[in-house]
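Hello,

Our lab assistant flagged a job as stuck in the queue for most of the afternoon. It eventually completed. Since we weren't sure the result was trustworthy after the delay, we are filing this so someone can double-check. Below is the sequence as submitted and the structure that was eventually returned. Let us know if re-running is recommended.
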Amino acid sequence: MSWLSSLKLHKDEKIIDSWQGTREVIGPEYTPSGSQNDKEKVTANVQKDGLLVLTNQRLVFLEGQEPDFKKVGASIKVSLDDVDDVLFER
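-- returned structure --
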């Protein structure tokens, strides 16, 4: 089963394009144990490999739900109706 086949499409929804990538989940800040400075904070970030899928109705990030990627799920879903501006930087 491919990652794209795991995406349940809405009525009249079609896949336009997809890209493999990694999303970074920004975790909470914490003070490392043994730190000499109580103000020293570290953010626990987790990287998730997946597939960003653009359809004619939404943008979806599919990611593996298990270490071996046998189960795939949509972790982020954004309706294109909710997107009103896009910024590109070089």
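-- support follow-up --
The delay was a queue issue, not a problem with the job. The result is valid. The longest strand covers residues 15-30. The mean pLDDT is 81.
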